[in-house]
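Aim 2 progress update. The chain analyzed this quarter is reproduced below.
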Amino acid sequence: MTKKEISEIRKQCSKKEYFFTKICGCYVHGEDKQTEAFSSAFLALPEEDAHKYIDIFKKSLSGALNKNLFNVPFGYKGDEKEFHEALDILVRTGLNDDEALELLYSMVIDSYDKAENYAILLVHNRYDVPGKASDGTTMEDASEEVYSYLSCAICPVSLSKPGLAYQGEEGFSSLKQDWVAGMPENAFLYPSFNGRSTDTGEALYYSSNAKHLREDFAEAVFGSPLPLSAEAQKECFAGILEEICEGPVEYSAVCEIKDCLDEIAVNAEDAGGGGAGILKKEQVKRIIEGVADREIGDREFEAASKGIDWEKGGLYAGNLTDMKKFEIKMPEAVVRINEGMTSRPEVRKIDGRNCLVIPIEGGMLINGIAVKPDAAGNAGTGGD
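Predicted structure tokens:
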């Protein structure tokens, strides 16, 4: 799914007009994994409850594509195939198949490693997909198909904080603690909405924590591995560079690489995300050859990138660069510069020392005090 397609489905999470047809859930009690199931027509919910559920499912379609949201194909094999078939039944019946629901709950519980209490929440919807004219405008009265889907959210359940509640003339009294469901830690949408159409070969997976994706859980239920986390991809790319360059990389080379990755990431954003911006083995190799100014042999590159399974994925340009800023970390300081700056810092040798020279474009503030740039240059010189 692309960014635009995710946004289109996210708009179905509306508090003004309810689109969900049914909600089901399973409350899982800690390590012993005892469960309590429930279900209801969504329209039968009290308005306040419905709004809370809508917030949860809207959150499960948020975040950055390829950081929090991942298009995951199904690996048709073993128990995962049975899980896939159960999902198809639940989509087709609108969550009205108890056997398929039990299978979904058990598969999630068996593969979701969590000692604390949590809830598995499911909603179903049928979206009458509006057609689009040749100029891209939406034609609400020209439906092309009905996209039937379910969304599954896994939410932590914890005790609410103790406190005092105001009771009018009686003053304040102790607030009763309740078990409260939080925003989802993980979720998935099935089937995918690819090309604004149903794709039963894929699901959209969500993780609230971009550094901890629960790869084991995702692979257990989908039968396919997730890509490396954004942080792990950045570390792998840096490792490849340092291995091939045999140590720290030239400052000018790093700037050149950032410009290249920024351009790829911007083009991917313009294309709506999805698979755009995914760097495969040969493309990463060419980028590094460009700054290393030499040809890199296949064996050398494979040795340097041994932590990456290029057959099952690649590195996402948007995870390797920050298009909004240029950051330099040193033992003494961290310098963050907005990418809107007309020129980047330079590294110069001054009085025999390597110095970072940052052009001053506009005013300066030190502890909230406006400073003249020329005065800053004379500060601490010990002049008359």
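Residues 379-384 have pLDDT under 50 and may be disordered. The longest strand covers residues 138-159. These observations will guide the mutagenesis experiments scheduled for the next reporting period.
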